[in-house]
Every structure is written in structure tokens, then in C-alpha cells.
């Protein structure tokens, strides 16, 4: 059939229809491409940092500690813990860090002022450190806690601040740290993350409900002595849009659950940008990952680094007592009071004696150390009314719907002689006779020790 | 219309033989705005849409009254965290009301208007008459899109304005306490709350595009509305499944609650930009789908 | 130049004296064999208000609604577009107006291609398509204002006056502020006509304009069409009821099952070659008369006791009379009967007014 006008117009019409449908196809491709083109962490492509040795890099990292940093941090935990769905619905709360993914925003002037905010959907949990003062504020409960040092601590702090200004502050020495490691934090965070806390405390009062940052986690990991670890340089990466060196810390010890810790360090500012902790039990994804998704080195604004509680908010005052701390010199885990350490390095197990777990879990986990904590609900009359209908334990603490007891029951499993929390990185055994054993070792090791 | 009834038309200026086959009919300037005005009158003048707006306005009113009446009772402070804040600052009623309406009521109203946009005209038979006027299909779709967007904006504005007035009347306005616990001056706070409303409004661009697309697929407006309502619901469900976190960032509703950025000590503009970019992406994809469908479809209604 | 009007006539059913038989199933092949219908006198290409060539629409369901239709509506004509319900009239009209895309074939309206030139063409076309469609909750006036606002080629300042004139013209002025929802079917139909008359048009396409109208209303519509035609407007008016529009049409096109089975000037549709001569004779002379007619080459269709009926063909009636008289037949009466449009319609569509398919 010869091409008639109608067959020509047919094909042109079909073309025009096809051309129109091509528009959404292109739109999908373009939008899809835009979505796909946002890799936050890319491997070596385009990284051409000069080679450095591990020692040089560690030196640079420790020198860069006073760099002001702000940015967004994503924290992902794949600890293999039972999921705690309630945590997602109750707004921004440090318990969210037990599993899944959390976003934090971090600002620090690099010296002694910082703010870390755990972001929830339409909620926020903030930890603000302003010199010798520290605050936590939860938008969900509307509660502000003000932490101050006691007199001796303030004196020590002033002395350190002067030394810092004169440049005579010794490099971090845990022996000099006058503050306590909060037990609940030690119980909840993997050992090597807990190790950072001494450094954190060096500059101010100990805050319960602490939030992690890549810098602190990285420094903790890097400080664990070479006696127990092998340091190697990994492939250079791009992290948060920055070219970065990678250090791999591998425990020499086979008994630990930690397979390796990978630290990425900004190639020009030497600020740690990302820390991954890999478990021996999962080779596909890190059990813990804490990294910047965007980072800036400008000094944060004054508004961010100061905090004054909202008017009308009940502020709970906590004075952090100064106490002498037994500690080890070469970077092994600092041990809390009343604790004994079995083993050393990565596979060390901390044993706490005489812990009344039942009493502890009856309260909010972030208020473990402080029996005076009260859940504040609205006005005082309402508070009194509600108190009468709430189950309380003998210490008068108010049980929450998402209370620590529930959390404790969810996370632990009963075993012979106690309850066991077993995760990809850390195991906790609570014995019926009041001992708590914590370590980055398999659960069987703990049970054997107990 | 018997000959007596019918006004005899004036004789044409030229006889049939002289009238050109296709006389020139140039477009008048401002014609698009005229059509748009007509469409907006139709959308905003429609009883059903007015009822939806009134219904939405009742939410902050009722919310404010309930909070006010339970202020000193045992029920105080229940619900999402910042509903309790309302008693301290009426400005928070805007945020609380938008928060309450965001998951379902607002999407529902906006889905009704956008799903109805083209399918409604098809059902009443007005679509074919508009097209033979003629209105080019692209132009009509654009006008329909603007109409639906204006309605979406009106929904959010109705809630925000009524909430602001109710909140101010019942609780007064004060410097605003942010989620971060910091307090900002009233002017700054009012701007931030306005920002919340603006962001919430802009968050519906994608949904309007989806509704418009469904609206071009059917002559049954209820079907298009229902399909449109389902999208944010499904999106919310998918967003809550941690197993699907790979697709979370592209879900329509994923960034809806990022309006909270306006209530943080430092507004995360990049987060807000990401949310708006996502909406733009949905709008581009579904807008172009709607365009391709509507400009090639056979109008058999 | 394309050849216009490639419509062929289906094989005419033989008049056997019995009931008219429907044409055998309208095979598509029949239409493709080109045997052009003579164009109406004086209509060149430029004079066609509507012309389609091989217009075909196959819906996605596979149904062929319109099959190779070659429509030709001359300028100034009142074209009666006839066919039973479901014969493809509305789909054809929708293709003329650019609402439905043809599967194949060409459409020219007022000399321009559709749907490509819709923006240029449609301002000059008033249309009533498959019943009136208006916003139920708006008044007649508001509905017309809305349609007028959509027209980007009219002066908004004259909008109100034109709407009033159109309402006046269809007799709706008194009810102009009533909501459309409250209108009777007849009033709705009138409002549809008013919308088509919002501005002067070169072509009016009226699909079933008398639907729902009472006899009086139907008469009014006919009057309106006459007036418009007198102004020089071409009118394409479709109906499944032949009687309602037959009187006003200058041209006729008949659709059946997707095919345009006949079109042309109204006078030509009832084809003279199908005229029959009916001779009345005394009882005994019928066979003689039959013989005479056969001798003239006429096909005798029926011989009764009182007369003979035969197809006249090209033979002048006078010659028949002369031959009968010459043969000594006593002619008591002689009549020439041309088939009525109604008969043609029923014969071609085979279904009268029933719904096809």
C-alpha cells in the first residue's frame, strides 16, 4: 500500500503521542538520576591525598582536637538487639540509639562548648555543654537538667582552662579526669565507645543521656593502645564530601566480638568524620556506624552554644561530685568505681558488684544515677493527681509506659542465674546475686566468668 | 423559539460568499488570567470545597478549646509533646493544629480537590465543552493544577490563620520555645511558625500532581480522589518499615514532618530544601505523566 | 488534489414486493471500492466546511466505531447526519472537534486540519456534543460566563451582552439565574445551544439537538437552524430521528455500523433511478401491461390483478404511457413513485430506529 495522506498522518500522530509519553519517561530518569547521584560515602575516586603513616595521622588527629566542627551526623546501630518499637514513637530519646538509624546535629567550638541534638520527628533531645555547665533538654518531656560541677570540680576545671589557655595542658591523661563515668552509659554503650567518655568528661560535668559524636568515638578508638591493636592505613575515601584517610584498628585479641574499627579522617583538617565498628558476627555491614553526612569547620554561632531553659520549665539541678578515679595509664578501659576488670584490652570484662538492677530499671534509664529524678507532668496539681494512679516503686519513682523495666525485659533474655543482653558488639550479664558483667566478648565468656 | 419568540439576529456584515473560511481570531491579552480567575472562582466558590475549608478551620478551634478546658485537669499534657506547649503560647496552636491535620485530614481535602480537577469536569460533561471552546489541553491542565494548588494553600492557610487567632485569643502569644529548648523573640517565633505553615503548604505539591494524574485517568472523580488519598497513607506505612529504608528518602511523605526544622535552634535549610526538592521531583514526574495522559487521551465523556 | 467523497453505495436491496430486506452485513471491503458519490453542485475543495478522508476510529477495546468515513459537508449546507444510535455519528463528531484522535484518516474543518489546528478552527465552530454538559451548581448565566472566560479570542467586555443575547435566542432569559441542576432536560438542551451561539460561528455542529425536547421545542430548534443557515452558517446536525430534521436539511449523510452508507444533496438521496412506475389496469390486462413494460427494458417487480409495478430506470414516464397506449392497454392510472427518505434510511441502515449492535 502506497503511503496515503492518512497513513502519513497516522504515523505522525503516533509519533506525537509517543513523544508526549517520552516526557514523563525523561522526567522519571532525570529525577531518579538526581536521587541516585547523592552518594555520601564514595570510595577512592578522585581522592589524591598525600600518603601518610599511621603515626603521622594519629599525631595530626590529636592536634586537630580543638577544631570547631558543625554538621549532621547519622548514627546507625545494627546490634542485633530486639527491636524497641516504642522508642520510635516517643520522640527523640537517647534510647533510640540502641537500634536503627538516628540523626544528630553537632556543633562544637573545639574547646569546651558544644551542642549535640538528637533529632526526632517533631522532637529533639539536646545536650549543651557550655564550659563548666551542661544542660540536657528533651522536647518530648519538656524537662531540662542542669549539670554543674561541685566546688572541687569547678576549681579543677578553672585550673585546666587556664592551663589550656597557656598551652600547658598535658595530652589527655585519664588519670587527670576528675569525673565519673556514668554507669548507665557504660552499660548501654559498647566498651570502646564507653572509653571515649573519660575524654569527654575532661572538659566538664558528666551528663547522663550522653550523645555520641564521630570525633569522640574515633579518638576513643584510636587511643586504645597499640599493645592491643594493629593500626593500618586503609583506602582513601570521600566522606561527607571530604577527602579522607582511613585507619583500620584491628584487635590483636581473638576473644572479642569486635572485628575491626574503621576510622575515616578528613584529609585536610584531620577531624574524624566517620567511625565504623565491625562485629565478628556480621561481615556485610558495620554493627555501629557514626559519621558526618555533612560537615563544616566554621565556628558555631553563639546562639547554638549557649542554653537557657525555657521560662516555666522545671529545671532539675544535678551537681556532679568530684571523686578520684582509679584508672589505667596506657589506654585500657577506665573502670568505674566498685568495679573489677577481668582480662585486658578489647576482651576485658568489667564486673560491677552490688548493683540493685531491680531498683535501677524502675526509673528512666537516663536518670539511673539519680534517684531524685521525677517525671514532670504539667502543673503540680495534675502531677499529684496522676501520681496517685501511677505505679511507683519503693523509691517513689514514676514508671513510664516506655519504662526501663519494659526496656530491660525486651532487651534481655533470662538465662540460668540471671538475665543476658547479647548484641553484635557487647554482652551484658546481670546475675541474680547483683553482679553486672559487661564486655565486648561473646555471652558465653561472661557466663563462664560469672 | 417560534419565529415570534426569537429575536431576529442582525444580518451578518458580509454575505456567506464573502466571509473567509477561517477568519482570523487572535488571542486577547490576559486571556489566561481570565480563565484562571474563572477557575479559582469555581474552586473556591464551590460549596463542597468551602465546607472542607470550614471543617479544617474547626480543627484548631476545637483543639484550642479542648486544651483550654482541660488546662488544669488531669488530661493536660496528653498527646504529642508540643500540644502541651499550647497552653504556654498560643503561637504553638498553629504548629499543633498543622501537626494534627498533616497525616490525614489535609491530604484528604487536597486529594478531593485535585482528584476532582479533571475527572469532575469529565463527569459533568463540561470537559468536552471547555476543550471545544477551544482551550488547549496543556493550558487547561495548567489552570487545573494552579486551581488545586491554590485550594491546597487555602486549606493550610485556613488552619494556620484560625489557629493563630484562636491561640492568641485563648492563650496569648509569647516568645517561642523551640524544640531545642531555646527561646526566640516573638517576631522571630512568628516568622518561624509562618515558615512551618509555608513548608507544610509546599509539601503538598507532590500530592496535587499525583491527584491531577489520577484525575486524568478516569471520568469518575471519586475513584481519582480515593486513589489519591491512598498514596500518602501507603507512603506513611512504607516509611515506617525499617526493612524499606532504602526507598524511604523518595517517599512522598518522608519529609512532611521536617517542618520541625523551623523549631530547631538552627534551621536546617538543607533539610527543608531536600524536602522541597522531593516534592518538586514528585511534581515533575506526576505532572508530566498527567500532561502526557491528558494531551493524548480521547475525551469520550 | 485528493479525490473527494469516496463513499460507495451498498448493493441495493432488490424490491421484491415483500418487506424491505436489510442489506447483508456491511462488509468493510465494500466501502473501500471507490465509486464516488457525485459532489453537490458547485462544491469545490474550498467550499467544504467539513471534509474527512478515510476517517477511522478503532478504540482500545478493539471496537471499530468509525470505519473509513469520507464526510463532505459543503459550505452553507444544513447537513443532516443520520443514523441509528451507536452507528458512529457521535464518535465522528468528536473527531471533527478534536476530542477523539482518529486511528487513521484525515479531518479538515473550515479548510484546516484537525486536531492539529484546533486553536485556529474551533473558535469558529459552535458545538453541542452528546447532550449539554454544565456545572450543576452554577446558574445558566454563570455557566456561560465560565465557557466564555475559557475562550481566549473573545473580548471579555462583550461577554455579558453576548451571553444575554444567546440566552434570549434560545428562550432562556427568564430562567438565566436558576441553577443548571434545576433545569428540565429541554432547558438544558437549550442552554447547550446557547453556549454554541455565544459568538458568531461559521460552523455549528449539533449532536442530537432535539433530544429531550417536546414537539414544540423540536420545531423551535428547526426554526433556529433555518435562521442560522440563512445567515450563512453551515450546520451539521445529527439525529437518530429522521423526521425531526429531514425538513431543514439540504444535505444528508447516513451512517450505519460505522460506515457512511450514503451522502449527498437531499434531492439526490432519494435516487430517481430507483423510482418505480405503478400502472393500474383492468384485471385482464395486467399481463399485457407487464409485457409492454418488459419490452421497454423495465424490470417488472410485481404483477397483480389490477396492475403492474416496475422499476422505471432511465425510461421517461411519457414513453411508458405512450407504449402502453400504443399496445392497446387501457391505462386506468399511472404513477411514478420515488422512494421516501425514510424508506432509504430504513433500507440502508436496516434497523430503523433501533440501536445498532
From TrEMBL, chain A:
InterPro entries per UniProt: Sporulation_related (IPR052944)
Alphabetized UniProt keyword annotations: Membrane, Transmembrane, Transmembrane helix
Membrane-spanning segments: 21-41
Protein name: Outer membrane lipoprotein-sorting protein
Originating species: Cellulomonas marina
From TrEMBL, chain B:
Domain of life of the organism encoding this protein: Bacteria
Transmembrane segments: 51-70, 90-119, 140-173, 193-213, 220-238, 271-292
Region annotation Disordered: where it falls in the sequence: 1-20
Identification of the protein by name: ABC-2 type transport system permease protein
Gene Ontology molecular-function annotations: ABC-type transporter activity
Cellular component annotations (GO), alphabetically ordered: plasma membrane
Keyword annotations of the record: Membrane, Transmembrane, Transmembrane helix
UniProtKB/TrEMBL annotation, chain C:
UniProtKB keywords: ATP-binding, Nucleotide-binding, Transport
Protein name, UniProt field: ABC-2 type transport system ATP-binding protein
InterPro entries for this protein: AAA+_ATPase (IPR003593), ABC_transporter-like_ATP-bd (IPR003439), ABC_transporter-like_CS (IPR017871), P-loop_NTPase (IPR027417)
Origin: domain of life: Bacteria
Record bears the keyword Nucleotide-binding: yes
GO terms of molecular function: ATP binding; ATP hydrolysis activity
UniProt-listed SMART domains: AAA
Presence of keyword rRNA processing: no
Similarity-based family: Belongs to the ABC transporter superfamily.
Residue span, ABC transporter domain: 50-282
Region (Disordered): 1-47
Lineage start: Bacteria, Bacillati, Actinomycetota, Actinomycetes, Micrococcales
Transmembrane segments: none
Amino acid at each position: 500500500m502506497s503511503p496515503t495522506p492518512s497513513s502519513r498522518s497516522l504515523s505522525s500522530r503516533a509519533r506525537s503521542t509517543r513523544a508526549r509519553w517520552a516526557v514523563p519517561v525523561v522526567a522519571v530518569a532525570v529525577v531518579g538520576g538526581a536521587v541516585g547521584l547523592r552518594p555520601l560515602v564514595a570510595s577512592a575516586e578522585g581522592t589524591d591525598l598525600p600518603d601518610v603513616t599511621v603515626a603521622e595521622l594519629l599525631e595530626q588527629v590529636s592536634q586537630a582536637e580543638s577544631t570547631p566542627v558543625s554538621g549532621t551526623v547519622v548514627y546507625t546501630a545494627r546490634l542485633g538487639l530486639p527491636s524497641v518499637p516504642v522508642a520510635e514513637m516517643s520522640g527523640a530519646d537517647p534510647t533510640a540509639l540502641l537500634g536503627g538509624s538516628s540523626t544528630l546535629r553537632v556543633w562544637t567550638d573545639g574547646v569546651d562548648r558544644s551542642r549535640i541534638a538528637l533529632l526526632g520527628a517533631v522532637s529533639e533531645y539536646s545536650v549543651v555543654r557550655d564550659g563548666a555547665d551542661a544542660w540536657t533538654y528533651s522536647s518530648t518531656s519538656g524537662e531540662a537538667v542542669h549539670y554543674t560541677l561541685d566546688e572541687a570540680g569547678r576549681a579543677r576545671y578553672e585550673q585546666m582552662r587556664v592551663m589550656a589557655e597557656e598551652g600547658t595542658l598535658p595530652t589527655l591523661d585519664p588519670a587527670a579526669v576528675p569525673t565519673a563515668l556514668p554507669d548507665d552509659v557504660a552499660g548501654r554503650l559498647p566498651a570502646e565507645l564507653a572509653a571515649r567518655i573519660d575524654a569527654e568528661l575532661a572538659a566538664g560535668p558528666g551528663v547522663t543521656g550522653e550523645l555520641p559524636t564521630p570525633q569522640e568515638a574515633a579518638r576513643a578508638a584510636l587511643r586504645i593502645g597499640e599493645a592491643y591493636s594493629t593500626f593500618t592505613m586503609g583506602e582513601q575515601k570521600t566522606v561527607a564530601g571530604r577527602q579522607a584517610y582511613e585507619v583500620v584498628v584491628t584487635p590483636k585479641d581473638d576473644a572479642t566480638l569486635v572485628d575491626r574499627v574503621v576510622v575515616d579522617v578528613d584529609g585536610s583538617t584531620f577531624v574524624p568524620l566517620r567511625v565504623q565498628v565491625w562485629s565478628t558476627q556480621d561481615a556485610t555491614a558495620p554493627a555501629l556506624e557514626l559519621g558526618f553526612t555533612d560537615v563544616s569547620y566554621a565556628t558555631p554561632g553563639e546562639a547554638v552554644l549557649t542554653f537557657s531553659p525555657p521560662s516555666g520549665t522545671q529545671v532539675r539541678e544535678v551537681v556532679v561530685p568530684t571523686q578520684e578515679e582509679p584508672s589505667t595509664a596506657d589506654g585500657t578501659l577506665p573502670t568505674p568505681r566498685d568495679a573489677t576488670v577481668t582480662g585486658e584490652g578489647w576482651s576485658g570484662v568489667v564486673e560491677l558488684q552490688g548493683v540493685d538492677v531491680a531498683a535501677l530499671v524502675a526509673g528512666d534509664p537516663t536518670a539511673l544515677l539519680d534517684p531524685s529524678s521525677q517525671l514532670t507532668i504539667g502543673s503540680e496539681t495534675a502531677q499529684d493527681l496522676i501520681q496517685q494512679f501511677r505505679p511507683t516503686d519503693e523509691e517513689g519513682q514514676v514508671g513510664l509506659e516506655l519504662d526501663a523495666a519494659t526496656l530491660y525485659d525486651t532487651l534481655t533474655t533470662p538465662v540460668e542465674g540471671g538475665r543476658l543482653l547479647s548484641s553484635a558488639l557487647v554482652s551484658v550479664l546481670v546475675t541474680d546475686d547483683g553482679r553486672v558483667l559487661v564486655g565486648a566478648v561473646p555471652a558465653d565468656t561472661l557466663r563462664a566468668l560469672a | 423559539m417560534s419565529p415570534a419568540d426569537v429575536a431576529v439576529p442582525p444580518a451578518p456584515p458580509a454575505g456567506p460568499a464573502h466571509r473567509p473560511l477561517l477568519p482570523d481570531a487572535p488571542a486577547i491579552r490576559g486571556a489566561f488570567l481570565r480563565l484562571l480567575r474563572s477557575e479559582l472562582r469555581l474552586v473556591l466558590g464551590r460549596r463542597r470545597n468551602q465546607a472542607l475549608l470550614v471543617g479544617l478551620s474547626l480543627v484548631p478551634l476545637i483543639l484550642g478549646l479542648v486544651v483550654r478546658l482541660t488546662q488544669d485537669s488531669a488530661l493536660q499534657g496528653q498527646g504529642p509533646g508540643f500540644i502541651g506547649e499550647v497552653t504556654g503560647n498560643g503561637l504553638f496552636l498553629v504548629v499543633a493544629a498543622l501537626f494534627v491535620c498533616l497525616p490525614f485530614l489535609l491530604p484528604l481535602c487536597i486529594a478531593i480537590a485535585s482528584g476532582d480537577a479533571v475527572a469532575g469536569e469529565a463527569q459533568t460533561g463540561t470537559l468536552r465543552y471547555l476543550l471545544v471552546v477551544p482551550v488547549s489541553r496543556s493550558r487547561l491542565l495548567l489552570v487545573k493544577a494552579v486551581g488545586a494548588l491554590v485550594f491546597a494553600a487555602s486549606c493550610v492557610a485556613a488552619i494556620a490563620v484560625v489557629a493563630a487567632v484562636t491561640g492568641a485569643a485563648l492563650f496569648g502569644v509569647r516568645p517561642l520555645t523551640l524544640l531545642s529548648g531555646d527561646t526566640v523573640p516573638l517576631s522571630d517565633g512568628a516568622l518561624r511558625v509562618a515558615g512551618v505553615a509555608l513548608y507544610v503548604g509546599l509539601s503538598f505539591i507532590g500530592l496535587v500532581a499525583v491527584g491531577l494524574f489520577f484525575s486524568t485517568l478516569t471520568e469518575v472523580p471519586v475513584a481519582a480522589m480515593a486513589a489519591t488519598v491512598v498514596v500518602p497513607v501507603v507512603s506513611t506505612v512504607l516509611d515506617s518499615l525499617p526493612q524499606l529504608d532504602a526507598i524511604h528518602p523518595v517517599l512522598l511523605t518522608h519529609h512532611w514532618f521536617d517542618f520541625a526544622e523551623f523549631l530547631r535552634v538552627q534551621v536546617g535549610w538543607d533539610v527543608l530544601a531536600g524536602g522541597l526538592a522531593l516534592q518538586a521531583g514528585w511534581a515533575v514526574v506526576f505532572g508530566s505523566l498527567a500532561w502526557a495522559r491528558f494531551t493524548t487521551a480521547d475525551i469520550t465523556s | 488534489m485528493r479525490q473527494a467523497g469516496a463513499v460507495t453505495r451498498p448493493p441495493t436491496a432488490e424490491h421484491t414486493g415483500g418487506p424491505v430486506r436489510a442489506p447483508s452485513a456491511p462488509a468493510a471491503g465494500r466501502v473501500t471500492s471507490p465509486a464516488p458519490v457525485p459532489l453537490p453542485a458547485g462544491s469545490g475543495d474550498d467550499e467544504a466546511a467539513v471534509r474527512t478522508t478515510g476517517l477511522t476510529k478503532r478504540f482500545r477495546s478493539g471496537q471499530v466505531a468509525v470505519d473509513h468515513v469520507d464526510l463532505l459537508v459543503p459550505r452553507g449546507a444544513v447537513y443532516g447526519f443520520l443514523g441509528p444510535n451507536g452507528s458512529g455519528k457521535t464518535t465522528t463528531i468528536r473527531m471533527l472537534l478534536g476530542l477523539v484522535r482518529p486511528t487513521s484518516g484525515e479531518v479538515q474543518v473550515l479548510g484546516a486540519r484537525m486536531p492539529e489546528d484546533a486553536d485556529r478552527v474551533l473558535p469558529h465552530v459552535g458545538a453541542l456534543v452528546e447532550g449539554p454538559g454544565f456545572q450543576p451548581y452554577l446558574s445558566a448565566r454563570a455557566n456561560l460566563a465560565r465557557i466564555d472566560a475559557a475562550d481566549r479570542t473573545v473580548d471579555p467586555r462583550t461577554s455579558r451582552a453576548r451571553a444575554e443575547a444567546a440566552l434570549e435566542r434560545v428562550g432562556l432569559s427568564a430562567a438565566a439565574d436558576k441553577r443548571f441542576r434545576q433545569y428540565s432536560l429541554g432547558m438544558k438542551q437549550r442552554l447547550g445551544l446557547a453556549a454554541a451561539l455565544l459568538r458568531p460561528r461559521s460552523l455549528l455542529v449539533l449532536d442530537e439537538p432535539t433530544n429531550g425536547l417536546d414537539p414544540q421545542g423540536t420545531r423551535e430548534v428547526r426554526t433556529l437552524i433555518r435562521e442560522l443557515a440563512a445567515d450563512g452558517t453551515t450546520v451539521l446536525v445529527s439525529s437518530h430521528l429522521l423526521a425531526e430534521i429531514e425538513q431543514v436539511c439540504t444535505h444528508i449523510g447516513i451512517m450505519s455500523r460505522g460506515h457512511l452508507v450514503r451522502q449527498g444533496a437531499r434531492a439526490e438521496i432519494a435516487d430517481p433511478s430507483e423510482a418505480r412506475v405503478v400502472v393500474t389496469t383492468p384485471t385482464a390486462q395486467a399481463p399485457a401491461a407487464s409485457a409492454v413494460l418488459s419490452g421497454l427494458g423495465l424490470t417488472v417487480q410485481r404483477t397483480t390483478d389490477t396492475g403492474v409495478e416496475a422499476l422505471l430506470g432511465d425510461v421517461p414516464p411519457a414513453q411508458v404511457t405512450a407504449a402502453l397506449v400504443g399496445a392497446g392497454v387501457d391505462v386506468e392510472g399511472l404513477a411514478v413513485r420515488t422512494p421516501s427518505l425514510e424508506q432509504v434510511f430504513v433500507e440502508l441502515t436496516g434497523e430503523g430506529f433501533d440501536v445498532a449492535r
